Amino acid sequence: MAPSRNPIARLQNGENPESGREARKSAPRSSHGEWSPAPGRPDPVSVLRRQAESRLPELLPIRYGRMLASPFTFYRGAAAVMAADLAETPDSGLAVQVCGDAHISNFGGFAAPDRRLVFGPNDFDETLPGPWEWDVKRFAASIEIAGRDIELPPKRRRGIVMRAAREYREGMREFARESMLDAWYERLDADELTARFGTELDAEGQELFSRTFEKGRRKTSARAAGKLTEEVDGRLRFAHVPPLLTPLKELHQSADPDEREAYVRELLDQYAAGLHADRRHLFRSYEFLDMARKVVGIGSVGTRAWIFLLAGRGGRDPLVLQAKEARASVLEPYLGASEYDNHGERVVRGQRMMQAATDIFLSWQRSTGLDGLEHDFYVRQLWDWKASADLSRMDEWGLLTYTRACAWSLARSHARSGDRSAIAAYLGKGESFDRAIAAFSHRYADQNELDYRRLAEAVESGEVEAAVA
């Protein structure tokens, strides 16, 4: 059983290697390989349905349809299922700011304010202070599941998982030797990724990563506007592509244009008020043009996600922002409530804690929706050099390169907020932890396949509805 938690999840400062070595007594490193379903484990479909109770019901079939594409896509949408499982696993008692959903598709490239493409974790919807092991286990299990998805043999999958666990362990030991400021400033520029981690890539593999990052640099607000808008009476407007993209005026809750205008004005004013003065000045240089609801991701489908179209210089300089609903983290039932009342603030503060650089427009807000209820949001640019790897096109060496970079980046993120010296001392120099994580990943991937089949059966029987979109 996991140790008891504080009622409010918080971080603590400190550097104490001895506490890490002492933690091996209560949570031996080999114990992380032991996993089996707890007695009375909740039905995964029931967990997903409870999670969906406050979501938009008309979009839920899309969520289930996307989760059914493969065991890997199911895993991406099942953070709440795994959170309950992780709560029953051993941990060292050393807290960091965890991502909360650190599967390998939640890493990628993004633009730093100095206009360098940086690589690292890039989804923080579930972030909360908690055991660093939970992120490592969700991350490692996703490697095993992705390896099965591209049909790698078991021995090779195990080798990649162990190498990623080693990269995390050695990365944490590296950060423990650095000064606090050096560890804080560390980051991985995308241009350095293959040179540092891709030593076994062939020319085709090198080219795949280069194309991915180059494509990411082209994903800007101008490109988003070109893809998502159309010209109406000489002005840009979001296209009507339901249910994936629906302009605000097309939604049944927004028939009154005056009500729509007041709602949009309140949203933008509240958002601007939360920005630093210099960025608020920049934001107010733009003119609002349109707003639409956009379906995003897999696990997020059904939550409220708005995109805003703004423009400067006579409409020739588009800016596309995304306001994504932030709800209670799936970790909170097991780690305690966030110290932040606004879940948008929880997400933003967690992201700033974990990332070496963040979007200049990142902020949070709370507003009353057209449904008359209050909702929390975090806001950022929709696209700002967003580079996402196509895992289905990777071979063994590509997956190895990518996951090593992810593991180092995850260790760097944890080292910013937790006691990196204690974690490094706990992990040690040997492979005990690496082997345990590989064993856990194999066992949990088996369970994930059973959970995936359970959802497929629920759709087949009519228990839940799924749609492809």
Notes on the protein architecture:
The protein is an alpha+beta fold. The protein has a domain at 8-96 and 128-190 and 396-461. The chain contains 18 helices and 15 strands. The protein has helices at 17-26, 44-51, 60-67, 71-77, 79-86, 132-149, 154-177, 180-185, 190-197, 203-217, 221-228, 257-273, 277-283, 332-335, 343-354, 396-417, 420-427, 432-461, and strands at residues 8-9, 95-98, 107-111, 117-121, 128-131, 188-189, 229-232, 235-238, 245-247, 287-294, 305-312, 317-325, 337-338, 363-368, 374-381. The strands form five sheets. A six-stranded antiparallel sheet has the order 9-10-11-12-15-14. Helix 3 crosses helix 4 and helix 4 runs antiparallel to helix 6. The radius of gyration is 22 Å and the shape is globular. The two termini are 40 Å apart. The mean pLDDT is 93.
